[in-house]
Structure formats: C-alpha cells, structure tokens
Give the backbone structure.
Amino acid sequence: MTVPYEEVALEDMQWDDSLQAFTYECPCGDLFQISGDELAAGEDIAHCPSCSLVIRVLCDATSFAREWEKRVTEKQQSHSAIAVT
C-alpha cells in the first residue's frame, strides 16, 4: 500500500494538453500526473515520473466519470465531422 505524500483536490490541479493529464507540482521539481481516463476508472493516485512520491486526487469519481465521458464523446464527434464547403 502506497502512502500519499499529500491529498490534492482535482480543482487545484492543472490540465496539460501536451501530457494529456492533470498535473500538480512535485517537491522534486517535476509534475505529478494522472489522466482523465484513470480518474474516470476510479484511480485516485497521481504519480511523479521522476521520484517515488504519489498524491491522492480528491474528486467525486462518479460525477467526474460522467463529465469525462461526455467530453471524450464530444471530442470524438468533432474529429469525425466532415466539413462541407
């Protein structure tokens, strides 16, 4: 069992488009990372890729999963739309 370094509200994290993940600054200088898919699946531990620290992300998993699914569906639909000129 991993003991989290800190508990962080999802609202306090930042979305990083290049990483496709929510991020939060780690004391080592890197970023804790967790994807929307991980959160939607009920995962609540964000890992730092540079050290052994982890944080627990606090959010309502059920409502997040609904909102994330809606966002993914809208994104897929916008990519599959064909522009007619």
